[in-house]
Amino acid sequence: MTDTSRGEYASDELQTTDVHRIGPTMPMSSERASGPVEAPDKTVEEFVAAFLNELNFGQGVLLSRSTINDQYLALARTVRQYLMAGWLETGVQRRESGRKTIGYLSAEYLLGRQLSNALLATDLQDIADEAMKQCGIDIAALRAQEIEPGLGNGGLGRLAACFVDSLATMDVPCIGYGIRYEYGIFRQTFEDNRQVEVPDSWLSLGSPWEFPHPERQVRVDFGGRTETYTDDQGRERSRWIPDWNVLGIPYHHMVPGFRNGTVNTLRLWSAKATQAFDLQIFNSGDYAAAVRAQTFAENISKVLYPEDSTPQGKELRLQQQYFFVACSLHDFIQNTLPQDFDLRRLPERIIFQLNDTHPVIAIPELMRILVDRKGFDWDEAWDITRQCFAYTCHTLLPEALEVWSAELLGRLLPRHLEIIYRINKEFLEEVRETFPGDEMRIRSMSIIAEHPERSVRMAYLATIGSSKVNGVAELHSQLLRDKVLPEFSQYWTEKFTNVTNGITPRRFVFLANRRLSDLITDKIGSGWVTDLERLRDLEPYADDADFRAEFAAVKQANKERLFKVLQARDGIELPEHAMLDVMVKRLHEYKRQSLKLLHIVSTYESIISGRMRAEDAVPRTFVFGAKAAPGYHMAKETIFLINSVAATINADERVKDVLSVAFPANYNVTLAEKLIPAADLSEQISLAGKEASGTGNMKFALNGALTIGTDDGANVEIRQLVGDDNFFLFGMTEPEVEQLRAEGYQPTSYYRSNDRLRATIDLLAGGHFTRGDRAASAQVVDNLLTQDPFMALADFQGYLDAQDRVDAVYRDTDAWTRSAILNVARSGFFSSDRSMRDYLDRIWNA
Fold this sequence. Notes:
Layout: H1 19-22, H2 44-58, H3 68-97, E1 101-105, E2 109-110, H4 115-122, H5 125-134, H6 139-145, E3 150-151, H7 155-169, E4 174-179, E5 187-191, E6 194-198, E7 210-212, E8 218-222, E9 225-230, E10 236-241, E11 244-256, E12 263-273, H8 279-283, H9 287-290, H10 292-298, H11 311-336, H12 346-349, E13 350-355, H13 362-373, H14 378-388, E14 389-392, E15 403-405, H15 406-412, H16 414-434, H17 439-445, E16 448-449, E17 455-457, H18 458-464, E18 469-471, H19 474-484, H20 486-491, E19 496-498, H21 505-511, H22 514-524, H23 545-570, E20 579-584, H24 593-608, E21 620-625, H25 633-651, E22 659-662, H26 669-675, E23 681-684, H27 696-702, E24 706-709, H28 715-722, E25 727-729, H29 734-743, H30 747-753, H31 755-765, H32 774-786, H33 792-811, H34 813-825, H35 832-844
Parallel strand pairs: 1-4, 1-13, 4-12, 13-14, 14-18, 18-19, 20-21, 20-23, 21-22, 23-24, 24-25
Antiparallel strand pairs: 2-3, 5-6, 7-11, 8-11, 9-10, 11-12, 15-17, 16-17
């Protein structure tokens, strides 16, 4: 689409602005330029000049002939100029100061759109808005043009993005390391109410926020064998003779702090073949074979989390994990440290944080570097390595703690398997000295599992090879010590700690909810953006009728904004005056979207059966957002049933204006920024003892939604902070769950004894929502009645009772608004800035 609108600066003549004047001063013959590195002036005129310069000489088009994508790319690169000076200066300061760096190793970074965040960090929103207006351009259209990079699956990736944001805002040296997936988490669509996965081509229109540096490529080896040899000092050594290798190409992204001039780096690695093209084979006519090596290598960074139900998928996942940590360790040691740096002092300069088990292969990789390549003795190398890593466990589910087949690991990384075996052997010798004769303990603590096949338990390796191990909420950390890694926490009591997760208030309040941000700032000043505990100053306003009215008006305006977005994005039309009841998170049985569905169907059944009058119901709009992993069959069946229920309810005149259900496809950060500020009720209903922390629960509370939830994950801390009167608690506690499981949980007993539950499930099973096709809903229904692994039926009645309390409070607008204000005021603890201070104090010693 060509933009032919012409503003004050629109002209068919090239804008011949002095490039050196409007751009940052670049270093020339030395590390620094002759003076301080400077960004363009923050004036509308300078911004317009820089924008037109980028459009003409960067994109090679005139304004009158430019497309929206041309304009977006030019605008992004213009804003980038204002960050570049800080980025270059930050790099110089980091190298000169020698401060300890946080190397954040994460397979996921769910960044969200970058343009608005960069404008926020540089305080350029108003200037950019006016500059684009003078050019005759609607800046909102340019913001919408940006494709969100889906380099994460959910909470883990978004947490990583929040953490690197906070570290930059706190001026803490940090390099985020990850993978530049060519295709991120799939784009979700629905066909016949079923999820369909479509490739996420986030790079298709260009990515102006990254800087490729092929000259800093790293070679990564795979396969082959090992051999022993005697070195020059007569010591027996091992070396790896690989079969094949790939190249890792770094792409740098800037991570700006909030208006402080600090810009850290996110370094993502893309895989390329060492010999991508064979001209002789090509000339022979076998064109596919000529590029086979390139295709094979590039598969490593092709897609986030390849489906791993096949042996090939498992192998590709392990390739991905080793690829990015091998690149990252090499990058820091060879390219970031001074050339003459004494690696014995490595723990003084770096701590690598393992974001779950995906990067744990970095532990034997650092040992291989120190022992095989740098000539360290084993004991000295092991002492260095254990100080250089810390491990965050993000799960309580055994299936989420990665275990790799020893056969696969040995075939792909033979030297690393040898190192793991030796680490395990020496560790178990230490345990035997402490607990002589306790062979059962030895087996349970071994990195190597023998059944059902010999395999490597990566969580155990991470625990043994790290200086600290932390959970991500108080309850989760306690269960991690007591249930997941009990022998290790007994052995190393001091090694285990807790850091409750947090979210960045810059993106998820200040940027996503400007109306609320302006209201807060008007009352308590702007300092809360970087000191979220200052929100406590809002508490007195909860009893101010005028403030409550303003707060309620903000919530309604946010709803209206969301409804416009959903109508334009998905063709979904929602009623304007209904409670917005939201459940958005990854689709997994333990998160219990099925329990939410049972509540919706129960309410609907009560109305159509005459058990409840429609006019007596509190109008509700239920909104889901969730993706199911491509190979997770039950999760996909749940999505199908939710969509089927939505279609039926939304078409039923008997519940018109009382119940409506929406499930917009492809929930992502961009939609979250519109949905979360609009929500009235936050659904956090996982089975107690299964959710590690959650971060969506924090985002909703900070944006003035009330929570209905179990005592699970960070819900526990949210409830403690906001108060029982401002939180709708239901469900079994974790000990009660374990007791019921030990007694032998029988879901059918709940079905038989509860009339509402029976009517609800019978309506689902009878084909009411699937056009009479009973088989279409049978898998979800049968799973609930025969297995119900996460006890939705056991918590059903308690959940309905809590929803009745929700209705009662919502009918009292003042009482609801007062509770919502107190949720905002008392949730400052959940800033990722506070999380980072806890990591710095308890784990990183930086």
